[in-house]
Amino acid sequence: MKTGRTMNLIGFALVAVCFVLSGWRVWERTQRDRGGDTVVIRFAHSQLEPGLREAFDAVAREYMALHPGVTVEQIAIPRRAWASWMETQLIGGTAPDLIQLVNNDPNPILRHFRPIDAWVNQPNPYNAGTDLAGVPWKDTFIAPLTDPPTYWPLYLSHYSVPTTLFTIRLYYNRALLREITGNDAPPETYEAFIALCREVEAFAARTGRTLYPVAGARPVPPFDALFYRLLTSQTQRLVEQVDAGYTLGGAGTGAGEVRDHAREAYFRRVWDLRSPEIRAGFELVREVGRHFQPGFLQSERDAAIFYFLQGRTLMMPSGSWDFSSLVAQADFEIGVFPVPVPTTDHPRYGANMYGPPSEANTSMRGAFALTKQSPNAERAIDFLRYLTSQAAHQRFADRSGWLPAVRGVQPREEVKAFYPILDGYPPGFMFSPGVDTVRLWETYAYLLFAGEDGVERLTQTLEPLMDEAIIRDELKETRETVASLAAYDALQAADFARRSDGADPLLSDRRLSELWEAQTHREDLYFRSRYHLETFKPRR
User: Fold this and answer.
1) Percent of the chain with pLDDT over 90
2) How far apart are CA 52 and CA 400, in angstroms?
3) What's the CA angle centered on 114, arms 84 and 527, to 5 degrees?
């Protein structure tokens, strides 16, 4: 007993010491950041692939050489710990100056991050002497900053700037493909892809090797992107009934707007889980997913990567951000090709399609946002301007192997295959247009592959849950709309008070007009949501 008490005391003492040291470290860093001749800029992200941290460090050294007295510190956090780490840092008041936004959740934006419109509307000074000189910073990127995580329509503000484009491809083992088929040319059509999967399975059975066509994991990025491409290929024509204005250009193109329209259309019973297009999407996913390794939906992403690198699968879906890492780890030559989808002449799936889905609406990623806690906001933004200047970003892209985000910057030759494919038609929509409905998919997707009646089993399971889940998604959207309306009202009230007092207005006339337009749009959304929530009769 005495020994036990002693060990407990020692344990408590160690915990206390850890807390004291942690507190001292936070205090020391705060004092260092706020005082003295050195300005410390800290930026955090969750991308731990080889080469990327070295690329960030190289740019940071360049910046520090240009600005003596400035120290730039990189903080790389594993993806599994990212969410809890970020929440702890933001709530605890110890957050770095810049944080990567890894999802499109609007909840923390207003609370913890600063809008950066005042900076992005001005030219990037580090682009002097280039063809981007004098161009507003926000317009120097390859794709427009019109959607989260860079621009947040809900708040009419920019909150981050990107460092790359993310696209999804199928990686494959060139040597293994030659061994199986006699050549290393990847399939160019959906039919050829399925035929290759069957050929791999026949090869494995003939040779007695443990080998599967595709390495998969539970439906989280990037593996959900493969299923997303397949599912949305089957709702291309249905999307016309959901959002008639959805095109590759102009108004109403944002993925968020399509999700809003999809929920509204569900309330109007325009579609449900038994719509032919939705069931065709399920069948398509089932057809492809049956060529993944057994139990893949219970596997984590790392397990799928292990299968691929060990030569136990021929192919694996993943993103452009993984290319350098996978090439560095593989002892074989890696190739990539676009995820194939059926064509319009396919006897089962073609009738639901207009054609191959375009990647023209690919969002910018690797976006860094400015925290409200930053004691050196101007300097932090200046570092971001340097990182995304044409010259520095070229060196960053060369070192990292990431697709560049800045106009005029050339990618490394081997990553050009990841460039967005612009030709094609707008993709359709997912059957899960919200957080709660996505959770249903993540929880029950395994039913698709359990037995020969997987589509019907999934449909029967989801049907009694779908209505309530989509109601929760709509309520969440309504709460966010109300919060945005309150923010709009506060801005207008403050502007009115300043104008009444004869002071300079808070908002320009153009900004005020944009605010009124957005407010009218949001009020319309709110009352439409209220109507659907009050009149919708869930199935019991």
Assistant:
1) 56
2) 5
3) 90
